[in-house]
Design brief:
With 236 residues, the protein is α+β, with helices and mostly antiparallel strands. Helices cover 39% and strands 21% of the residues. The chain has 6 helices and 7 strands. Strands 1-2-3-4 form a 4-stranded antiparallel sheet. Strands 5-6-7 form a 3-stranded mixed sheet. Helix 4 packs across helix 6 (220-231).
């Protein structure tokens, strides 16, 4: 009788351990911020597939946590994914999330990851198409796993009194080239004044909606005119 009781207790203990083990694995793969978090991976792949109208092959995943280099306390949790497209071109995608805890932090919902995804594929595609006309690389912003240096913008241009027309022409080319490799809204560009103040933020959908609201036909001439007007709104 005692032996049977001991076996019953042992089975119950094993069941409890297995239950806790299952919960830990679940938290590790879906909740905690770590390399194995499937929410971050799924949100990243889903975002890229919709943005560029294709599926990408995931080659590797890296994860690290860094202390924020700002006055406010907290940490930056960073996933770095290496991917390649159907032509074998490799690029990186990043998911950066912030929290107050170095370890054991996390989100229970996959959509919570979607607003903090960035990638270098748009830079790769636009430079491949426009480098014969413009040296875009000189304006490219570094993205990645250094929060103190990484930027969300793909390109930053400095607008002076003499080059507004050149920048408007370049952004017009970007606007009409983006749909060749994506859904529009693939790139983010920032135009600054010479003093460093923001002047204009380029986003494909913002320009499209603005011209539609004005009931203007979307042509190279109307996009160029709109951009030139936006760049000339504030004094230099």
């Amino acid at each position: 009788m005692k032996r049977k009781k001991k076996m019953t207790i042992a089975i119950i203990m094993i069941g409890i351990l297995l239950c806790f083990g299952g919960i830990y694995v679940f938290l590790l793969r879906f909740f905690f911020y770590n390399k194995h978090n499937l929410y971050a991976q799924r949100a990243m792949l889903d975002s890229l597939n919709k943005k560029y109208n294709q599926e990408f092959e995931l080659l590797s995943t890296e994860f690290e946590t860094k202390e924020k280099l700002t006055a406010s306390a907290g940490y930056v949790h960073i996933w770095t994914f290496l991917l390649q497209d159907r032509q074998g071109r490799q690029f990186h995608a990043y998911v950066r999330l912030y929290g107050l805890v170095e370890k054991g932090d996390g989100n229970f919902h996959e959509p919570d990851y979607s607003s903090y995804i960035d990638d270098t594929y748009g830079q790769l595609c636009i430079e491949e198409r426009l480098d014969s006309q413009f040296d875009l690389y000189q304006y490219r912003q570094e993205k990645g796993n250094r929060p103190e240096d990484a930027r969300w913008e793909d390109y930053i241009f400095i607008c002076s009194e003499n080059n507004a027309a050149e920048i408007a022409e370049l952004l017009t080319k970007i606007y009409f080239t983006e749909p060749e490799f994506g859904n529009g809204g693939c790139l983010k560009c920032l135009v600054k004044k010479e003093g460093g103040e923001p002047l204009f933020s380029y986003y494909w959908w913002d320009i499209t909606r603005a011209l539609q609201k004005q009931e203007k036909e979307i042509t190279e001439q109307t996009v160029y005119a709109y951009l030139l007007q936006e760049l000339g709104k504030s004094p230099f």
